[in-house]
Amino acid sequence: MAEAFMAYPELRNPFKASAVNAESSATVLYQGRTIKLDSTGEGEGLLIDPGDLQSINGFEIKPEGVCYGDLCIPLDAALMVEQAGRKWFSLTALAALLEQPFVADLEAGVWSFAEIPAKRENMMVSAMAPELELTDREGQVVRMADLKGKKALIVTWSSW
Amino acid sequence: MWQRIYEDINDPNFVLICVAEDVGGEAVAGPIFDAAKPTYIQVIDENHLVSSAFNFVNVPSAAWIDEDGRIVRIDEGTYSMIHTFGEGEEAIAFGNDVYEPALKDWVLKGADSQHVQPAETVAGHIRQHSADQQKADAAFRLGNLFRRHGQNEKADYYWQMARDLNPDSVNFIRQNLTLTEEGSAGDQFRAMMGEYVSSGRDYYRPLDFKNNPLDVGPGASKIE
Asked: Which of A61, A160, B89, B179 could cysteine-pair with A6, CB 3.0–4.6 Å?
């Protein structure tokens, strides 16, 4: 049998301990991006500045609701929360409506969101490539949408 | 070996994207890429985003995407060749040699290739992940963030959560085992894979190329 040649135990402790939110109020992880939020509301769930929403998950606040493409969800008091005269958008209430799973570490103030199922219906039902944005080793952004007109093989491997 | 296949195909309308599912990042995957002297697109995917996006649970896995953005094959043990390690009775072999000719056939013939599958077949081949399995991806990435911040206790906690929420993910199991002394191919791994297989689960779809030009039947895609 092959030896355990793929181990890299040096990764166990390569990093110095540091706070995740040393200079931010909260951190959101989504689709491989790490988004630092300067300010968040008080209380349960994650209340964000409405201006931060689009940079997190592409949803926009419009007169008809909170929208992504053709999908629009009317705003209500659970989504748009007012505290001391300031409006906050509840990212966790949106996740609940979209059935988007997430895991939060409240102590550290980090919310990690899984994919939004509605964004993946095209793949699950019609076998269309999912929305996906990657950065290659040369720093170039590779989007599935940019591959149109060409055939592509996307193949995973690992060092382990 | 993908570089040789890419050069053989030599078609400006064919894009090859090889993605290393590696939390160790450039330090561990970079030299392996460099050794291949690749001219295809190389991605080091520390958060296993590609596996999440296509619901893969192991490497090597792949999707063929046509000119219209439609997936025409998915989730097979995507080996570029039969790999052998060791010698004599100790030797192990894994991989297959049927994937390469099928891929080349598709690039050449497009929709007329016998290996192209209709949308309903592909959709049926995409793994259905439960809400818990999707949540596992979020837990894994949270663990990665804490690892980068040197908070290993939390990192371990969320990686274990990911494994518990998605026990089908060989990726999570083996990535986690890289942090143990015995690594990702030791006794723990073998015990886990024994359990995995005996419970009737599979980590790739079986290769089912019809009328394969090599006429060798289903390829051997297994981890020994």
From this structure: A160
Please tell me the predicted confidence (pLDDT) of residue A2. Answer: 35
| Beta-ladder partners of A112 | A29, A103
> Between A7, A15, A145, which is nearest B182 by CB?
A7
Q: What is the pLDDT of residues B157-201, one digit of tens each?
A: 999 999 999 999 999 998 888 888 888 888 988 898 888 889 988
Task: Give residue-wise pLDDT tens across range A9-66.
Answer: 555 556 788 999 999 999 999 999 999 999 999 988 999 999 999 999 999 999 999 9
Mind listing the pLDDT tens digit for each residue in B118-160?
A: 999 999 999 999 999 999 999 999 999 999 999 999 999 999 9
**Is A105 part of a structural domain of the chain?**
yes
Dihedrals φ, ψ of B40, to 5°?
-85, 175
Buried b / exposed e over B182-205, threshold 16 CB at 10 Å, is ebbbbebbeebbeebeeeeebbbb
| Domain around A69 | 9-118
Cβ atoms < 10 Å from Cβ of A77: 9
Cis peptide before B60 (omega within 30 of 0): yes
Q: How many contacts (CB atoms, under 8 Å) link A and B? A: 262
CB contact (8 A) between residue B65 and residue A129 = yes
Domain ranges of chain B: 2-125, 131-167+169-198
Whole-Å CA distances, B61 to A158, B73, B114, B123, B215: 11, 11, 20, 16, 22
C-alpha angle B179-B185-B187 in degrees, rounded to nearest 5: 95
Structure tokens at B75: 């989730």
Planar angle of CA B47, B57, B180, nearest 5 degrees: 65
**Please, how many CA atoms are within 13 Å of residue B137, restricted to the half-sphere of its CB?**
28
Residues of B in contact with A126 (CB under 8 A): 70, 119, 123
